[in-house]
Amino acid sequence: MKSTFARPAIAGGILTCIALVGGANAPLAQAAVGPHQYVVTATLDGRLVRDLNDHSYPNRYASGSTVTIVCQDSGPAAYGSSIWDLTSNTDWIPDHYVQTGHSGFVDELPRCVDGHAPTGSSGHGFLATATLDGRSVKDLANHAYPNRYAAGTVVNLLCQDSGPSAYGSTIWDWTTESYWVPDYYIKTGATGFSPAVPRCSGSETSAPVAANSFKVTATLDGRTAKDLSNHAYPNRYPAGSWVEVQCQDTGASAYGSTIWDLTTQNIWIPDYYVKTGYGGFDPNLPRCSGTTSSPGRTFVVSTTLDGRTVKDTSNHAAPDRYPAGSSVTVVCQDYGGYTYGGYAIWDKLDDGYWVVDYYVRTGVDGFVSGVPRCSPATQPPAGTDPVNSSPGTPTASGSAAAALAVQTARNAIAAHSDYVWGGGHGTTPGATKGYCDGVNGYLNGSCYASNHSGFDCSGLMRYVYWTTTGVDIGSGSTGMWWAKGSGNGRTAPSSSFQANWIDSPQNLAAGDLVLARPDRSGAPGHTFLIVSNDPAHNQATIAEAARTSIGSRVTTMSYSSMEFMRGWRLK
User: Fold this and answer.
1) Ramachandran region of residue 406, left (φ > 0), alpha (ψ -120 to 50) or beta?
2) Which of 88, 109, 436, 453 is the right S-S partner for 441, CB 3.0 to 4.6 Å?
3) DSSP H or E segment with residue 457
4) What contacts 496, CB < 8 A, 6 or more positions away?
């Protein structure tokens, strides 16, 4: 998401990183989707949030009057319905008293995006030719929302992407309700990608990149134990946000289920409110506990890994033995040769091979509690332990600076996992509270940014490089960095970076700053740090402040999702 240090002037509409494309090629069904007028059956207050206790505009809509609804969203139950309607006056009213002709969501009205009417009236409406499940991932085995879209109804698409073959097509469609559906049964009028629908590209309207990301259906506390009485992190995951789950386990009964999910922040949440698409254990997620036949703990690998007979990245005894997304069982951990991002921890698997811990989703940056050390006496390589070191005195050159930048980013994300619009743009670099500008910074209808401390994307990068080099690269937006000097990212924001820029994602390395996701003007809308690069598989691991609904994270991203524009390298 583009970050900024000053409130932009908003001419109208919603800012996104995807330009929704209209045109004459869209089917007639599209015209039916958008704002519509309805009669209210009771005198209603206008509310700034979806809460019956809010009375910002008392008696704003008289019984029997006509009101224009621009989009609908779910919220707290109000008079027996959890549907709320956003009016053209940008206030909320309970749907129960709006005469839409439906007891549920209305097909002709778009779903609100982050509490606002989506750009382009809802994306693009097309007819479903069969009853379709809503899926949280592009996988026919996923049934997160069974029978979500009835045959013959309008499905509103925000973007399209490629994925696993489904009924003879590899195209998948991303809906305004944040679900995937197979394009084969959506009547777009095209046999391939529709010219009227943009491609998904990792912006606010697309799904998280990680395959183990799921949406939560209620605001959840983060718990250090599988126990509902534990409230270590109150309201850690807001309703509608995405969480990355590393493994599942059994625990105390919670809301009718004994399944608990361990997030990549090493926090427990009850599976009942996590949309994995399964009523029981998700077969694509590992169990947190090892078994008697296979001692150790099971984790998911984030990229395809070689099996190595020694703790050395030059060893390729079993090339590509562990595909990205597969599960591995770690029996012990140890120090070894430096790997990626300045790390030196290695994992011994139950099949006898070593893998670099850096790409194993253990949920922690250091040794995992409960997993034994293979050789307790083994010491880290010469120098400071790269995992547990603090930033200390800024380092000014080469690979040491890159390793320090990576570690600084990890530390900052661990300390401030919230994404905060405008965060990090204070007088000096560091986490700050943000603000909402009428479009950005909101979550579930409320201003999230003004109540939380953290970073937006450029604020995080500013802090990382200030800690690494001692130089403040500026509190401006990514677009301002792009326009600096000779323009188009050819000049870095400070002399701490090499004069020569990186012009291809294949050439990126740990510690590089990346500008990405061009907006309508051609300027970058996002920035992040390269943690490691894997050109053999066309992907990189990045550290980023992603967006309000996801937070700050370290994740693996394909080059196609990255939308790379320019890279800068530390000297």
Assistant:
1) alpha
2) 436
3) helix 457-469
4) 396, 465, 468, 469, 471, 473, 570, 571
Q: Give whole-number Cα distances, 67 to 40, 96, 276, 516, in Å.
A: 7, 14, 37, 41
Sheet holding 551-558, edge to edge: 551-558, 539-547, 524-534, 513-518, 564-568
Q: What are phi and psi of 260, to 5 degrees?
A: -125, 145
Distance of CA 195 to the CA centre of its chain: 26
Identify the sign of the CA torsion 563, 566, 570, 571: positive
Give whole-number Cα distances, 275 to 64, 147, 225, in Å: 39, 15, 21
Phi and psi for 481 in degrees, rounded to 5?
-60, -40
pLDDT confidence bin for 530, thresholds 50/70/90: very high
Q: 469 in helix, strand or coil?
A: helix
Backbone angles phi, psi at 453, to 5 degrees: -105, 135
Helix (H, G, I), strand (E, B) or coil at 185: helix
Residues 407-439 pLDDT 10s: 888 888 877 888 998 898 888 888 888 888 776
Residue 413 CB: number of other CB atoms within 10 A? 23
Give me the half-sphere count of Cα atoms (radius 13 Å) on the Cβ side of residue 37: 5
CA-to-CA separations, 45 to 55, 68, 284, in angstroms, rounded: 6, 15, 46
Secondary structure element (H or E) that encloses residue 127, with its range:
strand 124-128
> Cα separation of 545 and 409, whole Å?
10
Q: What is the mean pLDDT of residues 387-401?
A: 42
Q: Is 536 exposed, middle or buried (0-12, 13-18, 19+ CB in 10 A)?
A: exposed
Please state at what angle helix 398-415 crosses helix 457-469, rounded to 10 degrees. 130
Residue 1 has pLDDT above 70, yes or no: no
Element spanning 69, H or E:
strand 66-78
Collapsing DSSP to helix, strand or coil, 399 comes out as: helix
CA distance 278 to 424: 39
The pLDDT of residue 342 is 54
Pick the closest to residue 97 from 89, 107, 87 (CA basis).
87
How far is the C-alpha of 48 from the C-alpha of 89, rounded, in Å? 10
38/65 Cα distance (integer angstroms): 8
In contact, 508 and 533? CB cutoff 8 Å: yes
Q: Tokens 């289920």 map to which residue?
A: 257
Q: Give pTM, 2 decimals.
A: 0.40
pLDDT for residue 379 is more than 60: yes
Residue-wise pLDDT tens digits, 129-186: 888 998 888 889 888 888 888 887 778 887 777 788 888 888 888 887 778 899 999 8
Distance CA(394)–CA(135), nearest Å, equals 46
Query: Which distant-in-sequence residues (6+ apart) come within 8 Å of 501 by Cβ?
Result: 489, 490, 492, 566, 567, 568
Token readout for 344 is 């030196």
- C-beta of residue 441 within 8 angstroms of C-beta of residue 448: yes
Binned at pLDDT 50, 70 and 90, residue 199 comes out as: low
**DSSP secondary-structure letter at 216?**
B
